[in-house]
Amino acid sequence: MELTWIGHGSFRFDTSDGTRVYVDPFLTHNPKCPDAEKEPERVDVIAVTHGHMDHIANVADLAKKHGATVIAMIEIGDWLASKHGVDESKLQCGNKGGATEAGGVRFTLVGAQHSSGLPDGSYGGEAAGIVAEADGKAVYFAGDTDVFGDMALIGRLYAPDLAVLPIGDFFTMGPKQAALALELLGTKRCLPCHYGTFPPLVGTPAELKKLAPNVTVEDIEPGQSITV
Ligand SMILES: [Zn+2]
């Protein structure tokens, strides 16, 4: 699959059969989102890790405009339907450990150490990570999280080919914890995110590279892609 960083914690990927998936789309008010990415031409599936504004800001609008399937925790699905009029038939919102398939991609919600209040103060359930499996590959989107010991279980269960980890510090783990996360996961390739968007997010890929010398740390700019 082809994975494009849209800045901050936002991504899109395309599978070999043409499904386009957005993960945590934060486009309109994301200072790092390239202009060319602000108005998606096509959205088949949206996967959401948690309820904070910098992850959910564009979810409802995109889901309604494109008729996209939404993958998220059940509380977020309920909120999208009840408060924003997202079509309930498009929601595939379960809970951790459970998997669902959409557009030929298998999505599993997994643990995360973070909070998940929704922008209007509604309860958003617990924050999650997402494992996406397609084209014989597995990508672990950690969402916003600290490192936690059960990342070893995620490694054993899904053997991610790529770990997408936050490294900015302040709201999430920084490079030090991310290096340990990679050790627990046993994953040899990392795409760091959630850094550089705002002044407190000081972690850098260079620091992570130093701390995880045996891992390929992809250091790309928003708008650039990697192949998984
Ligand atoms: Zn965030």
List the helices and strands and how they pair.
Elements: E1 2-5, E2 11-14, E3 20-23, E4 45-47, H1 53-56, H2 59-66, E5 69-73, H3 74-84, E6 91-94, E7 99-102, E8 105-110, E9 129-134, E10 137-141, H4 151-158, E11 162-166, H5 175-185, E12 189-193, H6 205-211, E13 216-217, E14 225-227
Parallel strand pairs: 3-4, 4-5, 5-6, 10-11, 11-12, 12-13
Antiparallel strand pairs: 1-2, 1-14, 2-3, 7-8, 8-9, 9-10
Helix pairs in contact: 4-5, 5-6
Bound molecules: zinc ion.
Could you describe the 3D structure shown?
The chain has 228 residues and is of the alpha/beta class. The chain has a single domain (2-220), classed as Ribonuclease Z/Hydroxyacylglutathione hydrolase-like (Metallo-beta-lactamase, Chain A). Helix content is 21%, strand content 26%. The protein is built from six helices and 14 strands. The strands form two sheets. Strands 6-5-4-3-2-1-14 form a seven-stranded mixed beta sheet, covered by helices on one side. A hairpin with a 5-residue loop joins strand 1 (2-5) and strand 2 (11-14). The relative contact order is 0.16. The model has no long low-confidence stretch (mean pLDDT 98). Bound molecules: zinc ion (ZN). Zinc ion (ZN) is lined by residues 9, 52, 54-55, 144, 171, 194. The site of zinc ion has 7 residues, from helix 1.
